[in-house]
Amino acid sequence: MSTSTELRMVRALNQALADAMDADETVVLMGEDIGRAGGPFNVTRGLRERFAERVIDTPISEAAMTGAALGAALSGLKPVVEIMFMDFITLAMDQLVNQAAKAHFMFGGQARVPMVLRTPHGGGQNAGPQHSQCLEAWLAHVPGLKVVCPATPADAYALLRSAIDDPNPVVFVENKALYGIKGAIAAPAETVPIGKARIARAGRDASVVAYGAMVHRALEAADTLAADGIDLEVMDLRSLQPWDKQAVLGSVARTHRVVVAHEAVMSFGVGAEIAATIAHEGFDELDAPVLRVGAPFTPSPFAPSLEEAFMPGAKDVVDAVHELMGREGVANAR
């Protein structure tokens, strides 16, 4: 008989790491201050005490730790390396993009790189332009990398376990604003295959395709729109590369209107790829153009008031859906 327990996302991630390390002695953790300090957001708290030398504090060098993780993966270990803030992934791009992502291909399929790179993204902490970026579109553009971004504690646990079990590199993106949210996790906990979206809220008038923190802002928008008689469907991508094209096109076929929303800068983002695919492969199902919601093309500001204006929120989703409904109104949409 299955039961469930409620955990914050930070604890769900911690539990996923602990369970993976219990199940497989080749799983090792690497990163800055992840040992006694437990990492900048306490995701690895207590794991050094349980797993000793398998939790490795590294020098302050993203290039070094990612390169070491690559070597460890090629040598038979399953390293999970933590980059404190996604902004600092810039310092490890050669190791990640030119080496880890290419090894399986360049060795004719004979090499496996079972490494996970965990990193938080997103704003809301007034941390400014060097600690708030959402750079997942860069990584989703690289053949050989998988990219996931959970929105719930259950998916954080399930996707991290799947990422650790994957034979090739996975970038695991965690939105900082979600570390404290609570959610039920089944016991025994379930895994989720990478590349499988979920319907966070079923609806019939329009769809919002989102991931990470924007899933919650879309759900908030759905509550607001319900008061206007608009029934919004919310699709949680969960995985950005590969992404669940069939699930998204299925939602478009049900609602015939779609908004793609993410916290990242809108220009050249994940939403552009999804919108282009919908326009190409789902055109016959569309009753309105595909719209996007994202941050403006500017660095993230420090000031709380400016950051609040910079970050896309539920109101932006509401406005986009109202624009989608246009002159037809809700009555004609049903």
Q: What is the element layout, followed by pairings?
A:
Elements: E1 3-8, H1 9-23, E2 27-31, H2 47-51, E3 55-57, H3 62-74, E4 78-82, H4 93-100, H5 103-106, E5 116-121, H6 136-140, E6 146-148, H7 153-165, E7 170-175, E8 182-187, E9 198-201, E10 206-210, H8 213-226, E11 232-236, E12 239-241, H9 245-255, E13 258-265, H10 270-281, E14 291-295, H11 304-310, H12 314-325, H13 329-333
Parallel strand pairs: 2-3, 2-4, 4-5, 5-7, 6-7, 10-11, 10-13, 13-14
Antiparallel strand pairs: 1-8, 6-12, 9-11
Helix pairs in contact: 1-7, 3-4, 8-12, 9-10
Number of beta-strand segments: 14
Instruction: Choose one word for the global shape.
Output: globular
The helix-and-strand class reads: alpha/beta
By CATH, the architecture of the largest domain is named: 3-Layer(aba) Sandwich
Q: Spans with pLDDT under 50 lasting ≥5 residues?
A: 327-334
* SS strand fraction: 15-25%
Average pLDDT across residues?
Answer: 95
Largest sheet: 7 strands, mixed
List the domain count as a whole number: 2
| Fourth CATH level, the homologous superfamily of the largest domain | Thiamin diphosphate (ThDP)-binding fold, Pyr/PP domains
Q: In CATH, what is the class of the largest domain?
A: Alpha Beta
Order of the strands making up the biggest sheet: 3-2-4-5-7-6-12
What's the helical proportion of residues? 25-40%
Rg to the nearest angstrom?
20 Å
Say what the CATH topology of the largest domain is: Rossmann fold
List the total number of helices: 13
What is the straight-line distance between the termini?
41 Å
